[in-house]
């Protein structure tokens, strides 16, 4: 595992347990980090390189650095997989001009990276992202990801707690509402009733 932009370390850090991990500090120049990553890849010579792409992991506004885009073929490997965890801003109808402007630059970076990598396999975890990529002429599979929130047994009095929390809707004769939780960001334009 190579972390190309790790803000938690101040020097190149390697560890070897079950998996060899190389963490490259975000404070080092991109050219140095790319050269270090390329050197490790050549030494390891993997059958597949899987890019886990989170644009906001590289830049506070989600822009991909030009040095990384230029060097992408060096970091490709003989077979390449690209997992797009996020795309670009401005996908939703009614997005602000600011979101669309930032999204335009993010989109250019991601599409350039994919062009330079020429991956053998492209995936994303979101159907919306799949459709956005399809509009750009890129076929991507959907890979469902598991969550990191443990499943807990409900408390013995969970039903009673819910009845106290929703007294008007749990009265006799009324239909119980759908109660759902989401973990992540909801855009201001999200319409819960339509969903």
List keywords for this structure.
195 residues; alpha/beta; three-stranded mixed beta sheet; 5 helices; globular
Q: How is this fold's topology laid out?
A:
Blueprint: E1 2-6, E2 13-16, E3 20-25, H1 30-44, E4 48-53, H2 66-71, E5 79-84, H3 97-117, E6 121-124, H4 127-135, E7 141-142, H5 158-165
Parallel strand pairs: 1-3, 4-5, 5-6, 6-7
Antiparallel strand pairs: 2-3
Provide a descriptive summary of the structure in words.
The chain is an alpha/beta fold and 195 residues long. The protein is 30% helix and 17% strand. It is built from 5 helices and 7 strands. A 4-stranded parallel sheet has the order 4-5-6-7. Strand 5, helix 3 and strand 6 (121-124) form a beta-alpha-beta unit. The model has no long low-confidence stretch (mean pLDDT 84).
In short:
By secondary structure, this protein is α/β, with parallel strands linked by helices. It has helices at 30-44, 66-71, 97-117, 127-135, 158-165, and strands at residues 2-6, 13-16, 20-25, 48-53, 79-84, 121-124, 141-142.
Spatial extent as radius of gyration: 22 Å
Briefly note the structural class of the backbone.
alpha/beta
Query: Which sheet architecture does the biggest sheet show?
Result: 4 strands, parallel
| Mean pLDDT over the residues | 84
Amino-to-carboxy terminus distance:
38 Å
Q: Helix content range of the residues, please? A: 25-40%
Q: Biggest sheet: strands side by side, in what order?
A: 4-5-6-7
Number of DSSP strands? Answer: 7
Ranges where pLDDT stays below 50 over 5 or more residues in a row are none
What percentage of amino acids are in beta strands? 15-25%
What sequence of helices (H) and strands (E) makes up the elements? EEEHEHEHEHEH
Number of alpha- plus pi-helical segments: 5
The geometry reads as globular
């Amino acid at each position: 595992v190579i972390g190309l932009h790790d803000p938690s370390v101040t020097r190149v850090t390697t560890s070897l347990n079950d998996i060899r991990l190389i963490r490259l500090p975000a404070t080092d120049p991109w050219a140095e980090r790319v050269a270090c990553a390329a050197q490790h890849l050549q030494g390891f010579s993997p059958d597949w390189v899987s890019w886990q792409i989170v644009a906001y992991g590289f830049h506070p506004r989600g822009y991909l650095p030009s040095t990384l885009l230029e060097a992408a073929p060096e970091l490709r490997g003989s077979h390449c997989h690209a997992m797009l965890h996020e795309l670009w801003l401005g996908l939703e109808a009614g997005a602000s001009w600011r979101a669309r402007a930032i999204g335009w630059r993010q989109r250019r970076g991601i599409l350039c990276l994919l062009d330079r990598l020429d991956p053998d396999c492209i995936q994303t975890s979101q159907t919306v992202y799949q459709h956005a990529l399809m509009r750009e002429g890129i076929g991507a599979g959907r890979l469902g990801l598991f969550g990191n929130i443990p499943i807990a047994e409900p408390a013995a009095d969970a039903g009673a707690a819910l009845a106290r929390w929703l007294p008007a809707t749990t009265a006799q004769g009324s239909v119980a509402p759908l109660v759902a939780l989401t973990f992540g960001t909801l855009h201001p334009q999200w319409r819960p009733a339509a969903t």
